[in-house]
Amino acid sequence: MKFHNPGIRRPQLMLTSLIDVMFIVLIFFIVSSTFAEQPGVPLELPRVSSAETGRITPATVTIDEKGNMWIQSAPIERGELKARLAELKARHGDIPVVLKAHRLVAYETALQVLRAAQELGFTKVVAPVTVEDETQNR
Fold this sequence. Notes:
alpha/beta; Nucleotidyltransferase, domain 5; five-stranded mixed beta sheet; 3 helices; 5 strands
């Protein structure tokens, strides 16, 4: 004959207490998080008729595989490079200079552009590259 032993109980999972704890943790994070509010003095900012942003157009120097140069899509001779960059510096200040050179361009040609920009005092000079897909190299 089988007797029922009241001292042994089957384990049970109480979800109610787990849900309560998760709810309290959620409330804690909501209350303690900061919201994007700028502290400081309340100001009434000036009004304008149009909302145009002052975008900076970089000075783009392009060199093709034959060594021909362009600044802002206008063809130039190598001897004109420094003078044209100086014009841009005088007109727009220290704008970024973007050097777009074909991958077959001689290293010396690209260095001439970088040296001219450095001598004129441009502080932001970049040379964009194309990242090759690793599957093509295998």
